[in-house]
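Dear colleague,

As promised, here are the two records you asked about, laid out in our usual form so they can be pasted straight into your sheet.

NAME FIELD: protein one
SEQUENCE, THEN STRUCTURE:
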Amino acid sequence: MSLWEYANPKKFMDLSGRLMPWLSWLTAGFVAVGLIWGFFFTPDDYRQGSTVKIIYLHVPSALMAINTWLMMLVASLIWLVRRHNVSALAARAAAPVGVAMTLIALATGAIWGKPMWGTYWAWDPRLTSFLILFLFYLGYMALWAAIEDRDTAADLTSVLCIVGSVFAVLSRYAVNFWNQGLHQGTSVPVATGNRSVDDVFFIPLVIAMVGFGLLFVTLLLLRTRTEIRLERLKALERRERLA
């Protein structure tokens, strides 16, 4: 069985329909455990006090904001190379989820930054690239809405997605490129394993991150299924007008 089989809308709808109930329950469980454990059953930090607990919203949302765009990049490249309809619709479906995650990350970062830095905002390299990424999300969605022809819209938004991926990468690695920024380094560096978060904070954080990842997958499948249904509805409407 090839993965490309699920570029067929019918097969995608069948598989996603079977997965949705399981994913929904897993998502609810991981998100609830991660956030409740993190906010109510972890101690205050010796330097940051109770404000450190915003990490359980900020880090998972920021991670998903960046990874959502990278997922859109992969889907866009598949569309450009293989012209699979589901990949274009999946990229379109992911954008509003990415916008929501980016907004949560920006808002929680500002709330966290005020007591830590003395200001809600600074033109730090990571913060600035993250804000630009948010604007790319808005531009991506606006471009889809502005062009009536689906294939043309998919082509142009795919190119925009490729360009915007530069800022997705910068959002993730800006601290490594520019040492003068206010933003701290990555708390959970996967590559090196040299994390700066104690186990008492780290375990619920990982659970929250898994929960947000599952939340993204669940919302992506739900929204992609909606996009496929809308495409079918448009096709039926065109047939009625031609009849």
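NAME FIELD: protein two
SEQUENCE, THEN STRUCTURE:
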Amino acid sequence: MLTGSELLAKVKEIGDASKSDLVRACGYVSTKKDGTERLNFTAFYEALLEAKGVSLGESGGKSAAGKGGRKLSYVATVQGNGNLLVGKAYTALLDLKPGDEFEIKLGRKQIRLVPAGSGDEEE
């Protein structure tokens, strides 16, 4: 599989080829158990982005919590029952444990959660 400047040179050289032919020519091909060919488009595009100096900001494509899957949006939505849920990925980032307590501080269209007993007296 080509990477870096070799990959960029090959892509430029091939030019108008189909995407499948481009992926194949750059070596991003594997063989399935049944012997058929599998084109690894994701690996190809990741290598192409890296060769062009584009960083996706995360190692190995993992989410901020390190478990894979969707990326964190840092947006919470009020549910139909009125609850506002902060998901496990966020509590894991902050190393929060069951039983940790927070004071709820209300402001203008905002909610702040302050660890109980932290002495944060701003307002």
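A couple of things worth noting about protein two: DSSP finds four helices and four strands in the chain. The mean pLDDT is 82.

Best,
R.
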